[in-house]
């Protein structure tokens, strides 16, 4: 199951939903909990699909995007900064993990069909 989950939308949704919850509720910890829940889901998928190295890299990208969104928000306002951070996290997730999902399984199924 972990191989089938696309994490780019999860990573982007986590940043967007986390900010939306924090802004709407006025509770930054609640927004952080939403962000953390999405982040942990991504970590779970990355660990099962890509291993520790890629998981650490993608987690770092997400954390840096989150931190830099606070700086960018001073220049652009909060929503453009959040959307930019979400796009960066999604792009990294796609490039390093999602675009490679199923490549091993696809080859295995193709080889199984030719050998039967």
Give an account of the 3D structure.
By secondary structure, the protein is mostly helical. Helix 1 (7-25) packs antiparallel against helix 2 (28-50), helix 1 (7-25) packs antiparallel against helix 4 and helix 3 (52-76) packs antiparallel against helix 4. The radius of gyration is 17 Å and the shape is globular. The longest helix is centred in the middle third of the chain and has 25 residues, at 52-76. It has helices at residues 7-25, 28-50, 52-76, 78-96, 103-115. The chain has one domain (2-115). The chain is built from 5 helices and no strands.
Which helices and strands occur, and which strands form pairs?
Elements: H1 7-25, H2 28-50, H3 52-76, H4 78-96, H5 103-115
Helix pairs in contact: 1-2, 1-4, 2-3, 3-4
Task: Describe the structure concisely for a colleague.
With 116 residues, the chain is mainly alpha-helical.
């Amino acid at each position: 199951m972990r191989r089938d989950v696309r994490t780019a939308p999860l990573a982007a949704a986590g940043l967007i939903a986390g900010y939306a919850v924090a802004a709407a509720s006025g509770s930054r910890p609640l927004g952080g909990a939403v962000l953390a829940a999405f982040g942990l889901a991504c970590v779970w998928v990355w660990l099962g699909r890509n291993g520790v190295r890629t998981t650490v890299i993608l987690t770092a990208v997400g954390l840096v995007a989150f931190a830099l969104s606070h700086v960018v928000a001073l220049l652009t306002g909060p929503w453009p900064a959040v959307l930019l951070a979400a796009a960066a996290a999604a792009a990294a997730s796609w490039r390093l993990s999602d675009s490679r999902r199923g490549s091993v399984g696809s080859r295995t199924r193709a080889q199984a069909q030719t050998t039967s």
